[in-house]
């Protein structure tokens, strides 16, 4: 994490010096995809109690 913070600081210094731009962190509105429940699994094939339609 320290390396990531250092990289962010270098990027911000470059953006401010060269482009006169400063990054601003903004919170995401509402829920993020990571806070959503996992999708339910889909069943494939026949269920155990189904009969085979064999002639």
Provide structural commentary.
This protein is mainly alpha-helical. Helices cover 33% and strands 0% of the residues. The protein contains one helix and no strands. It has one helix at residues 2-19. The radius of gyration is 26 Å and the shape is rod-shaped. The mean pLDDT is 78.
Summarize the structure.
With 55 residues, the chain is mainly α.
Helices and strands in order, then pairings?
Layout: H1 2-19
- Work out the helicity level: 25-40%
Quaternary organisation of the protein chains: single chain
Average residue pLDDT: 78
Q: Alpha-carbon distance between the termini?
A: 65 Å
The unreliable regions are none
Helix vs. strand class: mainly alpha
Give the SSE string: H
Rg, rounded, reads 26 Å
Number of discrete helical segments: 1
What characterizes the major β-sheet? none
Shape: rod-shaped
Fraction of residues in β-strands: under 5%
The total of beta strands comes to: 0
């Amino acid at each position: 994490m320290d390396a990531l913070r250092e990289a962010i600081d270098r990027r911000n210094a470059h953006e401010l010096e060269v482009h006169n731009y400063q990054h601003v962190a903004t919170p995401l509105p509402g829920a993020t995809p990571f806070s959503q429940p996992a999708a339910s699994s889909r069943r494939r094939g026949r269920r155990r109690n189904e009969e085979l339609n064999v002639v």
